[in-house]
Design goal:
- By secondary structure, the chain is of the alpha+beta class.
- It is built from 5 helices and 3 strands.
- It has a 3-stranded antiparallel beta sheet.
- The chain is globular and about 45 Å long.
- The structure holds FE2/S2 (inorganic) cluster.
- FE2/S2 (inorganic) cluster (FES) binds next to helix 2 and helix 5.
């Protein structure tokens, strides 16, 4: 049912953890399954993502998708990171079963939410970036879980 890559990233997830004083943090959730994903980004002055970490309270596919997504965006510019869609994450994982497609969408949204947070903190507008719908605000916080 799952590809070897999914199993690998689920069992040995890359980039688990938090970044202190991150340039941008995005937390998103899926109301149906209740899974929550948080991505931390460290972005340098040239707008390059030098570090990406994640914490995911969710299913195995969500863990694998966060692991792969953080791997894919590391070293990329913000513009390039915006191209890392859920499709790109799924392709890099050699596919996900249809019922697990939304898990990869969570990864895309978490990246966007973290970039949105970065843009807000720096008073800039990132072309082509919209506020993710499933963004969870600090007030409604998920930190009790993550
Ligand atoms: Fe919802 Fe995987 S089942 S994120």
């Amino acid at each position: 049912m799952y590809s070897e890559k999914v199993m690998d990233h689920f069992q040995n997830p890359r980039n688990v953890g938090e970044i202190e004083d991150a340039s941008g943090v995005g937390t998103v959730g899926n109301a149906k399954c209740g899974d929550i994903m948080r991505i931390f980004l460290d972005i340098d002055e040239e707008g390059r993502i030098v570090e990406a970490k994640f914490k995911t309270f969710g299913c195995g596919a969500a863990v694998a998708a966060s692991s792969m997504a953080t791997e894919l965006i590391k070293g990329k510019t913000i513009e390039e990171a915006l191209q890392v869609t859920n499709k790109a994450v799924m392709e890099a994982l050699d596919g996900l079963p249809p019922v697990k497609v939304h898990c990869s969408l969570l990864a895309e949204e978490a990246i966007h939410a973290a970039l949105w947070d970065y843009a807000e903190k720096h008073g800039i507008v990132i072309k082509g970036l919209n506020k993710p719908k499933s963004d969870i605000h600090e007030e409604e916080d998920a930190s009790g879980i993550l």
